[in-house]
Amino acid sequence: DAKTTQPNSMESNEEEPVHLPCNHSTISGTDYIHWYRQLPSQGPEYVIHGLTSNVNNRMASLAIAEDRKSSTLILHRATLRDAAVYYCILRGEISNFGNEKLTFGTGTRLTIIP
Amino acid sequence: NAGVMQNPRHLVRRRGQEARLRCSPMKGHSHVYWYRQLPEEGLKFMVYLQKENIIDESGMPKERFSAEFPKEGPSILRIQQVVRGDSAAYFCASSPVKGTNQPQHFGDGTRLSIL
Known about the structure:
The structure holds 2 protein chains of 2 kinds. Chain A is mainly beta. Helices cover about 0% and strands about 45% of the residues of chain A. In chain A, strands 1-9-8-3-4 form a 5-stranded mixed β-sheet, with no helix packed on it. Chain A starts with 8 loop residues before the first strand and ends with a strand. By secondary structure, chain B is mostly beta strands. In chain B, strands 2, 4, 5, 6, 9, 10 and 11 form a 7-stranded mixed β-sheet that branches. In chain B, strands 1-3-8-7 form a 4-stranded antiparallel β-sheet, with no helix packed on it. Chain B starts with a strand and ends with a strand. Chains A and B meet through strand 3 and strand 4 of A and strand 4, strand 5 and strand 10 of B.
């Protein structure tokens, strides 16, 4: 899987929007961009994923650059519960089954300031 | 709709004992994945199973670790003759089908401590 680069940490004020960046300059045409987050003492939680177009769901929005070399996870109104480590992960077609695993990097630790 | 259930949540073993970690996937999910998170590190893939089959065990240590997902019952991750370095959080995830556009749904993990 292609590599992703994220800032180690970010801070945001409660009730304000948060933009979490991810660079993936070596992304291939069939790689999906997935985002997960991990709250303290919990398992990772799926947030959103996309291929080329921007995506919205009840948790967040995913904005994908036109050249697909970067993407941004957008939390529209941060709450204290959004404090977590956010992981940007690429999943691509390598073999029939060898790409089923998720490859987690170090992610971005998001701190929400009350 | 119950999520992925892992038990026990916490497990303490002495060096040399066996540890058995159980994972019940979400209803209707036949694909199970195990990951390990060492203290202050990211999650690392261990093994991917479908019912009764190991599909990808490229992340499993060569010795002492085994996994199964029987036709009936939960998936089991088994660690024999545990050592201090096995202390970690072990997470299980499941999905209904395979595919790079399919989310994986995680349990809250088993925290294994080796005395």
